[in-house]
Amino acid sequence: MEWWWSLSLLLGTTLALVFAGMPVALAFLLTDVVGALLFFGGLPGLKQLASNLEESLTTFSLLPVPLFILMGELMFHSQMGAKAIDAVEAWIGRVPGRLALVSVFSGTLFSTVSGSSVATTAFLGSQLLPEMERRGYSRVLSMGSIMGSGGLAMMIPPSAIAILLAALANVSAGGLLIAGILPGILMAICYVVYIVGITTLKPELAPPYAPQPVPLAEKLRASLTQVAPLAVIIFLVVGLIFFGVATPSESAALGALGTAALAAVMGRMNWDVMKRSLMGATRLSAMMFLIIAASMLFSQILAFSGSTAGLMELTGGLDLHPLVIVLIMQLILLVLGSFMDNLSMVMIAMPIFLPLIQGMQLDPMWFCLLIMINMDLANLTPPFGLLLFVMKGVAPVGTTMRQIYLAGLPFVACDLIVMGAVMLFPSLALWLPSLMR
Question: Is the separation of the CB atoms in 144 and 410 below 8 Å?
Fold first, then answer.
């Protein structure tokens, strides 16, 4: 069978099953079974498939994933961030779009202690949207600033997605985690510039108000008691990896333990919080691991069928600059991300794209960071962006999906600017990892 027929059969079957409504993990597994029967020699191929399935899940590099997810669940269910938001707000003076800026600063802060963009968005929405509504803020501006800020949890460590991509691409997990910091900060800066600019031009979007004056001593006390403790978790996760003291797995374990201990010290830990956090982390981790295992098998079958080699040969024959090919890949992912969840679209595309990136001798860590930005975009892109539906769940009664779609578009534009910058200047992604011990 020619390689293009093999690729069309495997990829077409997977996409058809996904668009027919089958869960992506089951779609992958069914395609893997078909591929094993065709390319692994019939029934004996199914035994090889089962053996490969076990090997794909018993990878040490995947260990941090459930621990990072648990950190986000603990942070969300314990509501530790409520007082921290008040402390952040106290330092922001009378500036245009004040509460929208609070959401950006708070989202950036919580992204450093939560590996879940869903949990961060839900938390910020429940805490800040009612106050924005009371102050007369435009719903589009309010929801957009919260969704954009919540998505930063995908970029800034601890990021479970970074661990998954590192395992798939066989790059340093710690390096990819650290690589997301600078682009994540650039995204937050773009959000701030947009919010200040649009509210200066259109003050009616965020009616100005005089915040309640807070004495300096009170600001310092709130920062020390509510914000500074979070710095301990940040150091356990980011600092230990950066200085080479701990591996990502060890940092993830320390971060989860530190989050639980901090919640207990702050009086926000009880049996119900622990139970809901563990159940949420277990459900999400099981789903992600099943998709990962099926995707890795899919990648092996693609290689065995000759599809990967054929694609690499075809790409090598194109008279296109490698950067143009990377841009085409990003456009394909943007289209896929509009119609399926970001994890699914990446797991479908990565087995095809990664060999091409390696064949063009491009840095896989740089490419993985571009994928992370693309996944952040997919969360905000209509019609099926995940954070759009999270926002629908916490938005005021009467909010329409059209309003939510419009809210996310300016922040999609900000992310595209950062993606373009990282694409043109790879050092934005690779500089910090180069400093690691």
Answer: yes
Burial of 163 (0-12, 13-18, 19+ CB in 10 A): buried
Domain boundaries, the chain: 25-40+56-435
Q: Which residue has the higher pLDDT, 43 or 358?
A: 358
Q: At what angle do helices 181-201 and 427-435 cross, to 10 degrees?
A: 130
Quick check: helix, strand or coil at residue 251? helix
pTM of this structure: 0.80
- Distance from chain centroid for Cα 125: 18
Please report, for residues 196, 249, 341, 344, the alpha-carbon distance to residue 336 in angstroms, rounded to integers and kept in the order given: 32, 31, 9, 9
Buried-exposed string 72-109: b where 16+ CB fall within 10 A, e elsewhere: bbbbbbbebbeebbbbbbbeeeebbbbbbbbbbbbbbb
Give per-residue pLDDT as tens, 215-226: 878 878 878 887
Fill in the amino acid letter for 12: G
The span from the CA of 219 to the CA of 240, in Å, is 29
* 376 close to 151: Cβ distance less than 8 angstroms: yes
Contact 252, 67 (CB under 8 A): yes
Nearest Cα to Cα of residue 35 among 10, 72, 15: 10
How does 327-350 read in b/e, with b if 16+ C-beta sit within 10 Å? bebbeebbebbeebbbbbbbbbbb
Residues 6+ apart with CB under 8 A from 398: none
Name the amino acid, one letter, at 197.
Answer: G
With CA atoms as reference, report the closest residue to 356 among 312, 410, 401, 417. 312
Mean pLDDT of 115-132: 81
Q: At what angle do helices 364-380 and 386-394 cross, to 10 degrees?
A: 40
DSSP code, position 135: T
Q: Identify whether the C-beta of residue 193 lies closer than 8 Å to the C-beta of residue 85.
A: no
Helices (H), 266-319: 271-305, 307-317
Contact 381, 165 (CB under 8 A): no
Phi-psi region of 42 (alpha: psi -120 to 50; beta: other; left: phi over 0): left
What's the pLDDT tens digit per position in 160-209? 788 888 887 888 888 999 999 999 999 999 999 999 999 999 999 988 87
Residue 419: what pLDDT? Answer: 94
Let me know if 255 is exposed, middle or buried by CB neighbors in 10 A (0-12, 13-18, 19+).
buried
